[in-house]
Design a protein that fits this description.
With 114 residues, this protein is an alpha+beta fold. It has four helices and three strands. It has a three-stranded antiparallel sheet, with helices on one face.
């Protein structure tokens, strides 16, 4: 049996709590994310076209606990009403990816020394 390191966990689904900034106090929201293909992450990072921004951003989010099923209309309302919502949601995804990278790096070192 071969042990293969997964460099990019494409398709992985995970949930994290995100604090959405509001006028009064942050709103805790459970967001369900997905890891899109790496080229989509690069495209999002390099994007300068506001018309493409939402569609690229939406590829990272599967669902959240504010509705039975996440709808674009409500998500857009949150993004418009509460500046910083997109940064908070994307920061949750980034933290997960950092955790994955740390684990992969740690596992790689252990694998190489065994």
């Amino acid at each position: 049996m071969t042990k293969q390191m997964l460099l990019w966990p494409e398709g992985e689904v995970f949930t994290r709590e995100v604090l959405i900034p509001t006028k009064y106090e942050p709103l805790p929201v459970e967001v369900t994310y997905i890891v899109p293909p790496f080229d989509k992450v690069v495209e999002t990072w390099q994007n300068k076209d506001p018309a493409k921004a939402y569609a690229l951003f939406r590829q990272f989010i599967v669902d959240w606990d504010q509705q039975d099923k996440l709808t674009d209309e409500i998500l857009m309302c949150f993004l418009t009403a509460y500046p910083g919502t997109d940064e908070a949601i994307f920061a949750g995804w980034c933290e997960h990816m950092k955790d994955c990278w740390r684990k992969t790096t740690k596992d790689s070192v252990q694998y190489q020394t065994s």
